[in-house]
Amino acid sequence: MTSRFKIGVGQLCCLFSVSRILALFMFILPENERMAKGDRPWLFLPFLLFGLLAAAPALLITKNGQRSVFDLTDAFSPRLTSFCGVLFAICAAWSAAMGAARLGLFTESVLLNGAPLPLPLLALVVSAVILARKGLQTIGRVGGLLAALLAASLFFVLLTTAGRLDPANPDPPLSDGFFRFILHGFRAVARTPELGALLVLGDRISGPQRKAVPIWLAGFGLTASCLFFVTTGVTGEYGERQMFQFYTLTMLAKVGVMERMDNLIAAIWVLSALLRTAFFLWIAWECLSRACGRKPGFGIQAAVAIPVLCVSLLLSGNVTELAGVLASGGNEALFAGVVVFLPISLLTAERIRKSHLKRGNT
Fold first, then answer.
1. CB neighbours (10 Å) of residue 155?
2. Which domains does the chain have, with CATH numbers?
3. How many whole angstroms separate alpha carbon 339 and alpha carbon 181?
């Protein structure tokens, strides 16, 4: 594939960072799965371990940018390509819907104070469709800009609130036991569908993916753990009672006359949610194009976007329903099946096929 259809590995990491850190900012932990405060600063350790294991099959399939998963399935059967294309499209649309639902709940409870959600979410999805139709390179350029804005805002928040940190607020590590600590690390990785996007984007990325992805995993894990530590240390028990703990931290960030920076930061989060939705919509359309053998028209693109809007409206209207979906284990099962076990099965089948061909030629 020519370079004009590709994005650089740096742009990929920026896209992944905006998408994943936004999910972290707006993540809601169900009541029955509370994470010990002392475990959060160390969560990057199991996150990095499971993240590397989950990314390995995709990195092996893509061969450092030489192919995508569909190039592998084409070698077996066009029907297998169609099946995987539809499956990956559904998963990408689900990821877009879950991100939009989190933003909807955040918007209703924090920004709009209970105002109706349909119009804001409709505006988000329509804008995401417009951006996604511009193509991957446009999405990549916007991702670089938003990654810089997010990094600047994050640095500002940490810099202006670190002085209020009380080291006595966090609990001792592993107070809930080693198994629950490891389990939370796995669940954090399962909330990283960006690793699954590698399967589709493999041949559209220029640069050493096998070096960049582990570095990104480590960087994001350390950033998240730092955020957990500062948030817990600054907000204490008050922060534990808040639905969006990281936003609570931003409300404390101010320097001199620059007060109430939380509104500006919230605007950056909304733009990041727009980018994330557009990115996963584009992934879904790309998967359908490989499944059907042609680029989907506007009708099919809209047919993907409409369920995203409907699901996000359904889940964002009730925090109990959204938390129930998050606690059901379905996301973890879907991630393990599609991102890990399916690629491993394809790699195994490819190795067996090559072995049979080699024996047949001798």
1. 10
2. 7-345 (1.20.1740.10)
3. 22
pTM for the whole thing? 0.92
Burial (CB < 10 A; 0-12, 13-18, 19+), residue 144, is middle
Q: Yes or no: say if 311 and 291 are a contact pair by the CB < 8 Å rule.
A: no
Residues 79-89 have pLDDT tens digits of: 999 999 999 99
Predicted confidence band of residue 118 (pLDDT cuts 50, 70, 90): confident
Residue 358: count of CB within 10 angstroms of its CB: 9
Instruction: Report whether 261 contacts 253 (CB < 8 A).
Output: yes
CB 283 within 8 A of CB 292: no
The CA-atom distances, in angstroms, between 1 and each of 207, 250, 272, 280 are 13, 43, 28, 21
Token digits of residue 299: 């009708």
pLDDT for 301 beyond 80: yes
Does residue 360 register a pLDDT over 70?
no
| Mean pLDDT of the 207-213 span | 90
Convert the pLDDT of each residue in 254-290 to its tens digit. Answer: 654 455 667 778 888 889 999 999 999 999 999 999 9
